[in-house]
Sequence to fold (566 residues):
Amino acid sequence: MKVIRTVKEMQGVCLKLKARGKSIGLVPTMGALHEGHLSLVARARKANDIVVVSLFVNPTQFGPNEDYLRYPRPFNKDKELCKKAGVNYLFAPSVNEMYPEGYLTYVQVEKMSALLCGAFRPGHFRGVTTVVAKLFNIVQPDNAYFGRKDYQQLKIIERMASDLNLPVTIVGCPIVREESGLARSSRNQYLSEQERESASRIYRSLQAGKELTEKKNIHSSRRILQKVTSMINEIPGAKIDYVCVCDADTLEPVPAVKHPVVIAVAVWVGKTRLIDNMLAGVK
Amino acid sequence: MKVIRTVKEMQGVCLKLKARGKSIGLVPTMGALHEGHLSLVARARKANDIVVVSLFVNPTQFGPNEDYLRYPRPFNKDKELCKKAGVNYLFAPSVNEMYPEGYLTYVQVEKMSALLCGAFRPGHFRGVTTVVAKLFNIVQPDNAYFGRKDYQQLKIIERMASDLNLPVTIVGCPIVREESGLARSSRNQYLSEQERESASRIYRSLQAGKELTEKKNIHSSRRILQKVTSMINEIPGAKIDYVCVCDADTLEPVPAVKHPVVIAVAVWVGKTRLIDNMLAGVK
Fold:
């Protein structure tokens, strides 16, 4: 496995691979890798000649009062995990390499970027789509892998890739959970043991919402929201940013489960903001 | 020469060419081709294995009260000109092909897009950068050719390509002028004979500004602006949108000619808005 630090070298390597007809799989990450990321790498390893993992804590997707500075950066551990997982190139550029002096260009997916987390984190998805567009242009992947834990991010990136005619297939992969049901996230390491116990109950609330519609045949979004919200409100130390029943494609809130929906939540547990979601109404 | 109407076919052809190691030159146009466009095609023909001309009157770069509907669309004539010029592929998609239902993504270069024409045509450059990013992703060019007549557009596209790490070289090409000095533009055909005579005097005003600094050693932007503005104000039927002495790279207005500048103007002649510019202070 080769670690590459500059855009120029990474792009040069990838353009050469493409001109030789090789397929490239990209797994974009902010590092602090966990089993969720590794499941994406395994998926990429199976379907591509070359696997590139990018590791970049992207400042443009953090708000001014968010956790950019304290976001975990265990580089050597991440590097070992990638090596073991059969990654060919680990692309780990500096901030200045990605956003040099005079940088001015942003990629924005309208509407979808203002919903759900977008309402609480203005500019977040603009930062995500900008850096992902840049990574796609640098790495020239045939396939790019994203976890469904960040469901809104996945749908926005699918929209961007389609709208901008990027020649890449976006592969959405299942949420990987801890035994307790807690969705794996680099931010879980901010949690105390007690908070981690609280956080695992978010999953059970989503399950209860899903069962309401799929087993008890209740289709009213209001009823589902009531159930999920009341269960989360019972969790010690939990504070809801949103609970929403949304169209699984457009992410617009829907009044009833007629087509596939995603039940999406953002919940603060202590000082840590967690997101999770569950598809429902999928026949 | 092959005419291609769909994104899928054009992108398929280009990805195959790239995988075979061929170089591609792209000349993006809105059609109504004139000698300016043909000079770009000739330049592309010399430096690339394959030349693609795109022909698309891009609705997202026109304001609501602009000339989108009456913009000339002489397709058959354009096609013949491309064929004669040795173009390999003429890419002429429909609006629905480029902006299908549910389209939401825009590429924006901040600051530079708000200056000069950006102040008079809000959203114009966002439309330009969006469609050019799409065309780059579809055609995968090694080189893309733009005329310096649209100087601000050229600099914004250079910025976008660099910021988004697009693996393309942006080639800026000299302004092609009529014998009178009038910069060639598809919009010149809106002009009456008398207006065309008026319009040619814009060039002479720019020349006078350039001479002031390069021959008479006057570096004050105010003095140059006075000269150019007063000469344009003497043209019958002319109405100035702006006259500006700007840094040739950042396009910011500068108080004095210390580094290379561009003297840029937008002038209405009757109901036709014309732009022109001239570099000055280049040693």
